[in-house]
Amino acid sequence: MKILSTNVYVGPNTWASFPLIKYVLDLGVLEEWPSVRLGAGFIDGLVDALPGLVEHGCSYGSAGGFLRRLREDEGTWMGHIMEHCALEIQNVGGSEVTFGRTRSTGEPGQYNMVYAYRQRDVGLEAGELALKLLLHLLPNELRADIDFRFEEDFDFQDELKDFVLRAQKREFGPSTASLVKAAEDRDIPWLRLNQYSLVQFGHGVHQHRIQATITSETRHIAVEIACDKEDTHRLLNDLGLPVPRQYMIYSERRAIAAAERIGYPVVVKPLNANHGRGVSINLTEADQVAIAFRQALEQGTGRAVLVESFIEGFDHRMLVVDKELVAVAKRVPGHVVGDGKSSVSELIDVVN
């Protein structure tokens, strides 16, 4: 089973009006091995690896339809199975996608397989991981006939965990995601221009670009001030607004000294970073500050780290468009609340 070619459609195409990834697959010897011939061990292993497949309706249009296709009558072929796996892997990673199609090219054993994606690289990685999973689930009697380097220590759950972490790093932040959703609601086409938050709305002379919440209309000096946490702190303080005590430091020793000067609890964070990366809060002792300092250095783009007094409260992100407040998001860190019975792992499963 090989991928003969790959195409990424970023807009309307011959298959759908939205972005798709297309693979041309050659099943090789697997053309003679539909799911029912691969056996219950293959199907059960597939569902154990990706339990969400039980919700796929497939052509039946209701939950469980895809599993019926796998088990009933003549079964279904590997290209179709890979399509569903690529979709489900993306769903696990946080990209909710459902559309897929697998059709013969007219050549024996060759298929056009297409599926939707939200993030280009995440979609491509999902296809590659789906192929890897399916081949490792094959019965031993088939492996000798497959041109593929099988890994004896292959652990799909570890691979999936790494995939999810990479997918989450590529997700839009809440502000960018809200703007993209607003564009979609207004039938405005958009295109992601890099792996981060650079997005183009519209085409040609009508196009506009944003970088997160920064647009072509945003004043440069305002951006420079807002991106510098120390400058922002100083300006707000000069205006008479309440702000935490803050020190900018460059060493672990000075971080601890600053924390003791401010008084515990404290916050340690990078001078330059976003999405809350490298921020440690409610630190109450020197060892915690030392660890937080190293984490802040890893996540920041420079050598400077901020130590601030810790102020408890809610965290809100406010979006202003043309001097009008249009949206407010309350940011809640991932957490669980104990019930006196369940383990932390069980509580996490409930939340997820």
Verbal overview:
With 352 residues, this protein is an alpha+beta fold. It has 2 domains: 2-170, no CATH class; 223-309, 2-Layer Sandwich (Dna Ligase, domain 1), CATH 3.30.1490.20. Helices cover 38% and strands 21% of the residues. It contains 13 helices and 14 strands. It has helices at residues 35-38, 40-49, 65-71, 78-92, 120-136, 140-143, 156-170, 174-185, 220-227, 229-238, 252-262, 286-299, 344-351, and strands at 2-9, 20-26, 100-104, 110-116, 190-192, 198-201, 208-211, 214-215, 246-249, 266-270, 280-283, 305-309, 315-321, 324-331. It has a 4-stranded antiparallel beta sheet, covered by helices on one side. β5 (190-192) and β6 form a beta hairpin. The two termini are 34 Å apart.
Low-confidence segments, given as residue ranges, are: none
Mean pLDDT: 91
Total count of domains: 2
Largest sheet: 4 strands, antiparallel
Q: What topology, given as strand order, has the largest sheet?
A: 1-2-4-3
State the shape.
globular
Strand % is 15-25%
Q: Using only CA atoms, what is the Rg? A: 25 Å
- Specify the number of helices: 13
The count of DSSP E runs of length 2 or more, i.e. the number of strands, is: 14
Helix content: 25-40%
Going by helix content, strand content and strand pairing, the class is: alpha+beta
Set down the secondary structure blueprint.
Layout lengths: L1 E8 L10 E7 L8 H4 L1 H10 L15 H7 L6 H15 L7 E5 L5 E7 L3 H17 L3 H4 L12 H15 L3 H12 L4 E3 L5 E4 L6 E4 L2 E2 L4 H8 L1 H10 L7 E4 L2 H11 L3 E5 L9 E4 L2 H14 L5 E5 L5 E7 L2 E8 L12 H8 L1
Antiparallel strand pairs: 1-2, 2-4, 3-4, 5-6, 6-7, 7-8, 9-12, 10-11, 10-12, 13-14
Helix pairs in contact: 4-5, 5-7, 11-12
